[in-house]
Amino acid sequence: MSDPRQQTEPQQEPPGTLGAMHRRPDHGEDSYRGAGRLAGKKAVITGGDSGIGRAVAIAFAREGADVLISYLSEHEDARETGKLVEDEGRQAVLVAGDVGDPEVCRTVVDRAVEEFGRIDVLVNNAAYQMTHETIEEVTDEEWQHTFDVNITAMFRLVQAALPHVGEKASIINTSSINYDSPRPTLLPYATTKGAIANFTAGLAQMLGERGIRVNGVAPGPIWTPLIPSTMPPEAVEKFGKNTPLGRPGEPKEVAPAYVLLASDEASYISGAIIPVTGGKPIL
C-alpha cells in the first residue's frame, strides 16, 4: 500500500471532505484524553464536521460536554463527528445549513436551546476561503459570501444566543494568523479574520458586565479539507513548511486552546487571542 504522505493531494471542490483526502488530518480521535474540564456544559460548534471543528467537538465531548455540530453539507463527515461525540456518552446534535443565511443561524441556536435548554459555550468556527492572485478575480458575490459566513454569522449567532446564555458562558471565535499577517492571495478571508479579531476584542468589553467571556484562537497553517479544496496544488504541496516547526499543524494541536477558553479555569481570560501557529509570531 502506498504511503499517503507521498501522494499528491487531490484537488477538491470547496469546502472539501475528509473521505477524498489522501492524508487524513489527525483530530485526536486516538490521542485526546479528557479530564472532566467541561463536565455538564452545553456547546455549539459551527463548522464542526471536520478539521478544527471536529477536533474541538471530540475534545469537548471527552471533557464532558454535549455538543451541537453545525455544518454546511458534509453529511458523512458530520455523522462521523457525531458518533465520536456519542461514543463518549455525550449528546450530539447535527444541524446542516449555510450560516451565511440568517435563518440558519437562528435555527442553530433554536435547536441548541430545544435540545440542551441553554448554551454554555459558543464556538464560531465556520469559514470560507478561496485563493486568488489578483483582486480582479474576486467577484462581488464571493466577497459578500466570505463576509456573511466568516464574520456576519458570528454577529447573528451571538445575538441569537445571548438570551440563552448566563454568567460564566464562553464565546470563542476562530480568527487566523492572517489577521496579523494577511496573505494577499486570501484577501477576502484575511480581511474577515482581521474583523473577527476586532469583533472579539470589542464584544469581550461589551459582555464583560454580564459575566460572559469572549476570546479567539488564531490558527496558523492547519491541515484540513479546506486546504486542498481552496488552494492550488503547488500551494498545498508547500503548505505549512514555512513555519519555524517546518510543517502544518494537525487539528488536534489546536483543540486544547478551545478547551482552555471554554473551561472555568479561564475565568479571568477575556478579550484574548491565542495563537497556534507553529512558531510564527503574532504581534
Automatic annotation (TrEMBL):
Q: What UniProt keywords apply to this chain's record, in alphabetical order?
A: Oxidoreductase
Segments carrying the region annotation (Disordered) are 1-34
Q: Which domain of life is it from?
A: Bacteria
* One Pfam match: adh_short_C2
Stretches with biased composition (Low complexity): 1-15
UniProt lists the family membership as follows: Belongs to the short-chain dehydrogenases/reductases (SDR) family.
What is this protein's record name? Answer: NAD(P)-dependent oxidoreductase
- Which organism is this entry from? Plantactinospora endophytica
